[in-house]
Amino acid sequence: MKHPLISTVFLVIFSAHVAPAAEEKPGPPIVQSHIPTLVEAVRFSGDIRLCGEKIPYTDPDVRERLEKEMMLAVWNRPQVMLWLKRAHRWFPHIEKVLKQEKLPLDLKYLPIVESALLSHGESHKGAIGYWQFIKSTGQRYGLRIDSRVDERRDMFCATRAACRYLKDLYSQFGSYLLAMSAYNMGESGLSTAMEIQETRDFFSLYLPLETQRYILKMVAVKLIMSAPENYGFYLEPQDFYPVFTFSEITLSPEKDVPLSMIAKACGVSFKTIKDYNPQLRGYFLEKGASTLLVPQGKNTDFQKKFAHLYKNLAKPLPPSKFHIVKAGEGLSAIARKYNMSVSALLALNKISKKDVIHPGDKLRVQ
C-alpha cells in the first residue's frame, strides 16, 4: 500500500524540478486524425452514384450488401493504403485513356477491384493482369498473349483493350452497372439471366454471388478513394508512390537479344527492364520491331551503346554443346551434370519450369 506521506513528499520534490510553464518551448503541432468506427463508416447519406447510375442504398437489401463491402474494405487498412499509393502511380494514365475513349472516369476503380493495380495478379479462372483478362477475351480485343509476350500485364495495352470491351458491353446492355457485371461474369451468362428473370435492373437480378458483390465493391472503393480522410486515411504528398514516368526505346534486332544486353545499353538492371515491361516473358527479346519502356531519360545514347553490344552478339559463337534427354532425367539432374544452374539451363533453351521435357529432346548446355 502506498504511504500518503511518501506520495506527498515525492510530489513536492518533483514539482520543484519542473520548469515554469512560461519557460517551456512549444512543441510541434499535434496532427489530429480520426479513424471512424465501422458504424460511422456505413452511415451513408446523399446521392451515391457509380458511372452516373444511382445506387439505391435505402433499399434494405442493397444497404446490407453495401455495408458489408464498406466494412470489409475500410477495416483492411493496409490494403486500402496500397490502393491509394498505387492509384497515384497509375490513375493519371488510366484517366487519360478513359477521357480519350469518352468513358466514365469511375471505371478507373475497376482494376483496383480486379487486381489491386498489380500486373502479375492471376485469378483461379486464369484471368491475368491489371484488368484481369482471360486469354480468349484478351486476344479478341487485340492483346498479344503467347509464350513470349503477354500484353495483359502491360498497363497501357490492357487499359486500351478494357476500354474497347467495356464500350461494347455498354452498347449491348445500355447500362454501365450491367456492362461491369458482364465484364465479371461474361456477357452470355448475364444475357441469359436477364432473359429468364425478365428484368434489366442490376439490383433486381439474381446473379452469381461474386457478381452481386462486384458492383458494390466498386461503390465501396469509390467512396473510400474519393474521400480517404473520411475513413481515417491521412496521406501527405510524399506518402504516395510517384506517377509512373518513362522513356521509350525502339529496336529491330535480326535475332533474339538477351534482355540483359538491353539493360546494359540503358544503364539499368535486368530487373528494371522486366519491371517496366511486365508483358515480356523469359530472358530474351525476340527478333523484329519492338518498343520498350525504360526509366525516364535512360534512352539517351541507347542506340549507340546497343549497336556496339549487338555487334559483339552478332559475332560467330563457339560451337554449341547439346544433351539428349534420357528416360527418367529431369532438369535439375541435367543442370548438375554440366555444372550449371537450372535457371541458366532454362534461359539457354528459352523454356520455363512449366515446360515438360521428354526422352530424346535435345537441350543446349553450352
Give a nutshell description of this structure.
The protein is mainly alpha-helical. Helices cover 46% and strands 7% of the residues.
Task: Characterise the protein shown here.
The chain contains 15 helices and 8 strands. The chain is mostly helical and 366 residues long. It folds into 3 domains: 38-239, Lysozyme, CATH 1.10.530.10; 247-311, no CATH class; 322-364, LysM domain (Membrane-bound Lytic Murein Transglycosylase D, Chain A). A two-stranded antiparallel sheet has the order 1-2. The protein has a two-stranded antiparallel sheet with strand order 3-6. Strands 4-5 form a two-stranded antiparallel ribbon. A hairpin with a 2-residue loop joins strand 1 (49-50) and strand 2. It is elongated, with a radius of gyration of 29 Å. 27% of the residues are buried. The model is unreliable at 1-22 (pLDDT under 50).
